[in-house]
């Protein structure tokens, strides 16, 4: 399976429409890949809290439609990163109407899965103040037959989420992010930790550039189930193109079957 991660750089100068058209062009250039991945909240700005409400869209809005079209055009599964979602006529348990929602399109351009970020970042501000939390796990079948679980940025700090995902059959994690430079070493270390402890393929696409006065950390990466770096980006805009060997996770789990020794979960049998 050939995977492309588009580590997009942006600042405060583009409209949503301009950025969408730039991103569609970058996705189009990835024809020949089986899976293309974009970062978290790239259309609205990961840290541009003040613009979120005004820029929010539905999962059938202009951004989603542009992503659907380009996925079909290049015939690849497209993880479109996430958008600030305002569904029509829905509010959550806290009375808010925004979610941080990832969109996945199949190679025909159909929106096959959405994932609403479960762990909201910002403590008393940011996401918890403005958005509802997601409640559901989301998994997708990848073109090579493996099963990928979705999470977003700050979710990475909560290992129990990834354990729940492997209990649902996940062999890979796809993680879009807008992770700041200030804590980029946490990002790099936690990606490896999740790969090693869950013996899974980690496909993690971060943001570059500086927006809303926050410098993004870059260092998107593809990490194998033994913690091996299959590819890692630098700090600027960059596309990572990676060939994932067949049976990478299956072989790792067979030759070093540590997950079978878990005792504090339903699957423990020893
Ligand atoms: O956990 C972190 O340090 C960064 C998280 C974040 O930026 C996010 O979830 O948007």
Automatic annotation (TrEMBL):
This is Apolipoprotein acyltransferase. The keyword Lipoprotein applies. Keywords: Acyltransferase, Lipoprotein, Transferase. Residues 1-246 form the CN hydrolase domain. Belongs to the carbon-nitrogen hydrolase superfamily. NIT1/NIT2 family. SUPFAM superfamilies: Carbon-nitrogen hydrolase (SSF56317). Pfam families: CN_hydrolase (PF00795). It comes from Luteipulveratus mongoliensis. The keyword Transferase applies. InterPro entries: C-N_Hydrolase (IPR003010), C-N_Hydrolase_sf (IPR036526), UPF0012_CS (IPR001110). One of its GO terms (molecular function) is acyltransferase activity.
């Amino acid at each position: 399976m050939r995977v492309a991660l588009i580590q997009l750089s942006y600042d405060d100068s583009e409209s949503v429409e301009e950025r969408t058209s730039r991103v569609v062009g970058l996705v189009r250039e990835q024809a020949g890949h089986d899976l293309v991945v974009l970062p978290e909240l790239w259309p609205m700005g990961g840290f541009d809290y003040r613009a979120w409400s005004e820029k929010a869209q539905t999962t059938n809005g202009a951004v989603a439609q542009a992503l659907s079209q380009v996925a079909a055009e290049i015939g690849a599964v497209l993880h479109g990163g996430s958008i600030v979602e305002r569904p029509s006529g829905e509010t959550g348990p806290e009375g808010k109407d925004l979610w941080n929602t990832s969109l996945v399109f199949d190679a025909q351009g159909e929106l096959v899965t959405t994932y609403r970020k479960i762990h909201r970042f910002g403590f008393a501000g940011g996401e918890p103040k403005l958005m509802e939390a997601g409640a559901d796990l989301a998994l997708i079948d990848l073109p090579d037959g493996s099963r990928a679980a979705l999470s977003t940025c700050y979710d990475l700090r909560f290992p129990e989420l990834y354990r729940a995902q492997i209990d649902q059959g996940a062999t890979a994690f796809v993680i879009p992010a807008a992770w700041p430079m200030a804590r980029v070493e946490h990002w790099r270390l936690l990606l490896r930790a999740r790969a090693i402890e869950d013996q899974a393929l980690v496909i993690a696409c971060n943001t570059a550039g500086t927006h809303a006065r926050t410098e993004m950390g870059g260092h998107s990466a593809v990490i194998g189930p033994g913690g091996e770096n299959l590819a890692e980006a630098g700090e600027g805009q960059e596309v990572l193109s990676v060939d994932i060997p067949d049976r990478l996770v299956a072989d790792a789990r067979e030759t070093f079957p540590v997950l079978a020794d878990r005792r504090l979960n339903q699957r423990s049998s020893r």
